[in-house]
Amino acid sequence: MAEQIVTAMGGSCEFNIVRGYPALINNPELTNVIKQNAADYLGKENVVDLDIWMAAEDFAFYSQQSKACFYRLGTRNEARGITSGVHTSTFDIDEKALEIGMGLMAYNACKNLQ
Fold first, then answer.
1. Residue 84: how many CA atoms within 13 Å on its side-chain side?
2. b/e 60-70 (16+ beta carbons within 10 angstroms → b)
3. ∠49-59-47 over CA atoms, to 5°?
4. Residue ranges of domains in the chain
5. CA–CA distance from 48 to each of 4, 19, 26, 82 (Å)?
């Protein structure tokens, strides 16, 4: 944390710079490749764009060191009553999502190593 006092044009402002998580930056080219791979693997109808949102995420540190693409894997199953959001006391996961997620990661790795 660094305290700063700025004076300009007859006014002044005191503020603190608080260091925290860096911005999570999705590399546009890599994101397009991963999105296409996901559509190939899961079917285009199962890949959706989400609204941009502000949140802290550990993955942001990786995106400072290398090209990165952060994506979310759906874990709900309304037919089975699994509908709670993550980070809630009622969160549950459709375990099929684990198989799908690992398969997608392996598919991405294989496609990007070609």
1. 8
2. beebeeeebbe
3. 20
4. 23-113
5. 43, 33, 16, 20
Q: pLDDT band for position 4 (50/70/90)?
A: low
CB 53 within 8 A of CB 15: no
Q: Reply yes or no on whether the pLDDT at 44 is more than 80.
A: yes
Residue 1, pLDDT score: 52
The pLDDT value given to residue 2: 59
CA distance 78 to 75: 10
89-94 mean pLDDT: 95
Residue with the two structure tokens 């392996």: 106
34 CB-contact burial (10 Å; exposed 0-12 / middle 13-18 / buried 19+): buried
Q: Report pLDDT for 53.
A: 82
> Which is nearest to 72 in space by CA: 92, 90, 46, 107?
46
What global pTM score does this model have? 0.76
